[in-house]
Amino acid sequence: MAARPGWRLAGLAWAGWVATVAAVAGTGWLDHLLHQAGRADLSAFAVSSIPVVVAAVSAATVGVVLAVRRPRHPVGWLLLGLGLSQALHDLTYAYTRYGLVARPGSLPGAAYLAGLNNGLVVMWVACAGFVLLLTPTGSLPSPRWRW
Question: Is 51 domain-assigned?
């Protein structure tokens, strides 16, 4: 019996959600290391960032539910990308701060991830913009929006 192609997309969606949650957990661990190094001022997670973390995890959760139930609808994948890119942004932020400032040279590739960190900001802002454009139907509001 051949597997349905939808199962592959569902697995991809769940892998994106797991990566989002793992990135949030990794950011928390790196923040703990920053606190131990005496550089709590470089922390990615503060009281003011709680809404951003909740928004990233909830966007990824809603995105995975939409992507599993309606794999051809772009808003689910965009929400999943929004949550994942925000979580990866926080992770690369904490990684570069620990690897370049708190303990220079202790983490490999920290200087290269600084550039990726800036690119992830553009990615999650773009995902948010496309979610607003494509909600609720999954297509642009009218033909005039098409190129």
Answer: yes
The two counts, helices (H) then strands (E), for the chain are 4, 0
Residues of the chain where predicted confidence (pLDDT) is lower than 70? 1-5, 146-147
**What per-residue confidence (pLDDT) applies to 14?**
95
Q: Supply the pTM of this predicted model.
A: 0.88
Residue pair 120/88 in contact (Cβ under 8 Å)? The answer is yes
Q: Compute the distance between CA of residue 44 and CA of residue 35 in angstroms, rounded to an integer.
A: 11
Q: Exposed e or buried b for every residue in 127-140, given b needs 16+ CB within 10 A?
A: bbebbeebeeeeee
Instruction: With respect to residue 146, please indicate whether it lies within any of the assigned structural domains.
Output: no
Place of tokens 């892998």: 15
Q: Are 43 and 28 a contacting pair, CB within 8 Å?
A: no
**Structural domain span for residue 93:** 29-34+42-137
Predicted pLDDT of residue 5: 62
| Nearest CA among 86, 69, 84 for reference residue 18 | 84
How does pLDDT run across 119-135, given as a tens digit for each residue? 888 998 999 999 998 88
